[in-house]
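Cross-posted from the bioinformatics board.
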Amino acid sequence: MKQKSVAITVTSGKGGVGKSTTVASVGLALARLGRRVCVMDTDIGLRKLDLMLGLENRIVYDLVDVIEGTSKLRQSLVSHKEYNNLALLPAAQTRYKEEVSPAQVKHLVDELRNEFEFILIDSPAGIEGGFRNAIAPADRAILVVNPEIPSVRDSDRVIGLLESANLDQIDLVVNRVQPGMVKDGDMLSVERVQNHLAINLLGIVPEDRRIIRSSNTGEPVVLDDKSMAGRAFNNIARRINGEEVPFLELEESSLINRIKRIFHIA
Amino acid sequence: MVFNLFNKEKERPTAATADDRLSLVLSYQRSDIDERKLKKFQGRLIELCDEFGYDVVGEVEIRPQSRSRDNTTVLNASIPVRLRGNQEEKSTDS
């Protein structure tokens, strides 16, 4: 029996919180679990997913080309080098978000549903046209938030917009958590962020220097066994895939950190 | 204090401050409240008190609070009043 396809929009409101990193990492992790996955970049004019996945040199056609009929959908999809059950539908880099409508994006995603089990849609920052394009086809949404006031406030606004668009399943990913700062009382805890936003917690991703290295190399951190963020994104993918996976223990327990705390210099 | 070699004072955790500020900004955002609306609301509350025979004898404070369990805002109004009749009685007595 053919599995039902699910379109998930990854959004945030505020820019720079890790939406594209989440889409690239979770998309690749789902592909490694054997699922047929399409990651779709709707950030027209400012695409990133191609770089995150190391596919920037393979793009011939893009999302706008498909919508305008310049190319067929199959021609615009770029397969991953290692996992051919993962495909990227890139955004156009030299066009504008206003050139496509929510109805056109929805129609495009409906076509993708025939081929893929999961369609992860990378939303642009903001709540204007690009955001509306990204949420139009979604069955559910993932909200990526950093544990800081501007990010949480924007996310709260986005939750209101998603609810008014009749998107009922909205899950939370708290990204760039620094457990040491939380422990010292200088960063909002995941629990407080979740309490404020009152939506289901899907994942907690720690701050990780390896994320920057991964975007430099075009290899998502889920491929790096030593990366805590990579493990967190793998767990998110497994939860989306229907598994019950406990949250990672992020507490820093190194001897140096404990000594620093004793002397109040951490 | 024996271990506090660098004489670093313990300050209030900034996350607690962030938490308080977040409650306030979310409640303002959720109820679409701005200062002008609050002023107007204060004026109406004073009129309402007057209608019910109360004199407002101090500053009317309206403080929105975020209630996370159902994503709503609670408006807490503090209105110092005196019953007009009682005041008249008092002033009559004195």
